Amino acid sequence: MSATARRRRAGGARAGAPVWLAVPAALAVGFLAVPLLGLLGRTPWGSIGAELTTPRVAQALRLSLVCSLGAVAVSVLLGVPLAFLLARVEFPGRNLVRALTTLPMVLPPVVGGVALLLAFGRRGLAGQWLDRVFGITLPFTTTGAILAEAFVAMPFLVITTEAGLRAMDRRFEDAAATLGAGRWLTFRRVTLPLIAPSLGAGIALCWARALGEFGATITFAGNLPGVTQTMPLAVYLALETDLEAAIALSLVLLVISLVVLVALRDRWFPTA
Amino acid sequence: MSLQASAQLTLGRLELEVELAVATGELVVLLGPNGAGKTTLLRTLAGLLPLERGRVVLDGMVLDDVAAGEHVPTERRPVGFVFQDYLLFPHLSALENVAFGLRARGSGRAEARQRAAAWLERVGLAGSAAARPRALSGGQAQRVALARAMVGDPRLLLLDEPLAALDVATRTDLRRDLRRHLASFDGTRLLVTHDPLEALALADRLVVLEGGRVTQTGSPAEVSQRPRSPYVAELVGVNLYRGRAGAAAIELEGGGRLVATGGHRGEVFAAVHPHAVALHRRPPEGTPRNSWPGTADALEAVGDRVRVRVTGTVPIVAEVTPAAATELRLADGGPVWATVKATEVVVYPA
Predict the structure, then answer these.
(1) Do B100 and A176 touch (CB under 8 A)?
(2) Whether residue B224 sits in one domain with residue B184
(3) Which of A12, A74, A219, B279 gives a 20 to 30 Å CA spacing to A82?
(4) Which residues contact A110 (CB under 8 A, 6 or more apart)?
(5) Do B69 and B156 share a structural domain?
(6) How many separate domains does chain A show?
(7) Is A2 inside any structural domain?
(8) What is the nearest CA distance from B243 to chain A, expressed in angstroms?
(9) In what order do the strands lie in the sheet with B156-160?
(10) Considering B204, B233, B262, which residue would you say is the last residue of a domain?
(11) Domain check: are B226 and B93 in the same one?
């Protein structure tokens, strides 16, 4: 080994972490991983198929799918245009709007649920009017559960999409304009395809968040089996009565989270 | 004149103020250093940047008239644009890239694909129609960009450094191809470059842009023989002086004097080709009209000649044969005498 190589190697070792950092780091890994291993350890592998097909569990699964996909649809329909405005249009109070619309990310979900109830409840600010004019009631309905999940999950989509729009080379839009494409055509045929990776990541995050939503849903939409009782709510309830069903449902949620994580790994954890 | 533009705008530190007229069928090359405003000017003509003041008229159609509040948006201008790094849409195939503009302007799918395919064949890329831009070489991408800009039959074709992104070997071939394709285009053509070779090879007329202003315009021959700014002089490799011509000689701005033939008077430029400069170690015998002492400074091989920079009251670049450079031991530097015949000094009004 040459002298330089030796020095480089020594330098590399010195650039590493102090040994005593390894202890808390190992504790952190254990703390984060052991509960998951515990879940796997207690999983009734033999009867998991049967557990997942009991009417109550199957109902919660189906409802979760409907609500979370509904929340994603609402988020895409409203959130992508919002992200576009935040990224592209200078308007007074833009930062305030961005802060307001991303607040649900850090707001305790149960507070979100209370706020939704006060706004869209039958006596709420907007709910009163919805009830009187259209005869629409939101609390304790599946639509209510969808709204509660969208409220909490949409900011993830908005933030990711806005970042994608900001990172994209806008001269592609200039090129489209010189080729005769108006703004709407350019948005559909150029901008959207170019930000597809960000949009995809945003949708995955938004869906994962909606699927796991608990606090806002139970506060605003309640816990009615078949109507608003999604998987997280069913897990919580089953803990009291049917531990095996709770574990089976938890496992499903864990697997979905893992799939989302793996799908996004290149985006969030690029392999060095 | 088919394109008449007067454009004024401020963008960061650039203050662009340009009057430009280009005839139908004429290929005008905008030449200038980086940051001179060449790309900015193209973008204003395409409507991608708003003018602060000015007017742009193409074939009698007013595209911009700030005073009258008129502005035709980019997508409704009959303009084709080849961008510096081409900006091919990465999610579309070569064929779809070329067909994009036709579709946007209302052609049916089948017709657009057919016309796009015909253009790809014309630029020699029929076999790459299905390829995505990332699978194309630089030269292929350039030709797709050209086809994409030309397929819609624009009245004005704008090309921003169309060869700059290519390696030297491909550039020579593509310059020839580009020349051919540009020759087949009957509208108005405006090409931007900072490469003098490209400019001289392609231009019917050169427009030199420096610091947002036009400093010189003329045929490639005129511009290279009679540069009007240090930038152009450097590009074409000529020694350029400015001074005041009197009865006996030209008094140079930086000091010193040059004797020339021709009897010019007043403010003039004087250009001396490096070939015309002779160097000596001793004061020349006889009385050449122009001779002055200086210091040989830097040596550089240029083709089969050696270029020597001589500093002094009248700084000058000389090109001598390698044999002369060896004989005079110019590599050692030191004092030299430079001489130029009066007939070799080209004088023209400033």
Answers:
(1) yes
(2) yes
(3) A219
(4) A215, A216, A218, A219
(5) yes
(6) 1
(7) no
(8) 46
(9) B79-82, B156-160, B188-193, B27-31, B205-210, B213-218
(10) B233
(11) yes
Residues A175-212 pLDDT 10s: 999 999 999 999 999 999 999 999 999 999 999 999 99
Same domain, B51 and B120: yes
Pairwise CA distance, residues A204 & A156, whole Å? 9
Contacts of B132 in chain A (CB under 8 A): none
For B300, other C-beta atoms within 10 Å of its C-beta total 11
| Structural domains of chain B, count | 2
| Alpha carbon of A171: minimum distance to chain B alpha carbons (Å) | 7
pLDDT at residue A131, rounded to an integer: 83
What is the structure's pLDDT at B287? 65
* Whether B129 and B243 share a structural domain: no
Give the lowest-confidence range in A140-154, B7-21, B160-174.
B160-174
Question: Is the predicted pLDDT of residue B327 greater than 60, yes or no?
Answer: yes
ipTM score: 0.84
Last residue of a domain, one of B233, B250, B273: B233
User: Does residue A44 surpass a pLDDT of 50?
Assistant: yes
B23 and B71 both lie in a single domain: yes
Domain enclosing residue A60, as ranges: 55-268
Shared domain for B265 and B207, answered yes or no, is no
CB contact at 8 A, B160 and B127: no
In a domain, A263, yes or no: yes
Angle at A262 between CA A258 and CA A268, to 5 degrees: 115
Q: Which chain B residues are Cβ-neighbours of A174 within 8 angstroms? A: 43, 46, 48, 74, 81, 83, 87
CATH number at residue B333: 2.40.50.100
Higher pLDDT, B283 or A30: A30
DSSP assignments along A15-71, one per residue: TS--GGGHHHHHHHHHHHHHHHHHHHHH--GGGHHHHHHSHHHHHHHHHHHHHHHHH
Containing B169, the helix (H) or strand (E) segment is helix B168-183
**Mean pLDDT of all residues in B148-168:** 92
**Is A264 within a domain?**
yes
CB contact under 8 A, B75 and A177: yes
Residue A15's pLDDT is 60
Query: Smallest CA–CA separation between A179 and chain B, in Å?
Result: 4
Mutate to test the interface with B, among A172, A179, A186 (most CBs of B within 10 A): A179
pTM here is 0.82
Report whether pLDDT(A1) > 50.
no
Give dist(CA B320, CA A269) in Å, integer. 61
| Residue A86: CATH number of its domain | 1.10.3720.10
Identify all chain A residues contacting B89, using CB atoms and an 8 Å cutoff.
Answer: 172, 175-176, 190, 193-194
State which residues form the domain around B119: 3-233
Portion of chain B with pLDDT greater than 90, in percent:
55
Domain assignment present for residue A147? The answer is yes
Mutation to test the B interface, candidates A169, A171, A178, A190, most B Cβ within 10 Å: A178
User: What pLDDT digit, counting tens, does each position of A82-127 carry?
Assistant: 999 999 999 999 999 999 999 999 999 999 999 999 999 888 888 8
Examine the pLDDT at A75 and tell me if it is beyond 70.
Answer: yes
In this structure, the answer to whether residues B289 and B229 fall within a common structural domain is no
DSSP H/E element including B348: strand B345-349
Model confidence pLDDT, tens digit, residues A102-113: 999 999 999 999
- Rg over alpha carbons for chain A, rounded to the nearest Å, is 23
Only one residue has tokens 């069913």, namely A234
In angstroms, the separation between the Cα of residue B58 and the nearest Cα of chain A is 15
- CA closest to B107 among chain A residues: A180
Mean pLDDT over all residues of chain B? 90
Q: Could you read off the pLDDT of B167-218 as tens digits, one per residue?
A: 888 888 888 889 899 998 988 999 999 888 888 888 999 999 999 999 999 9
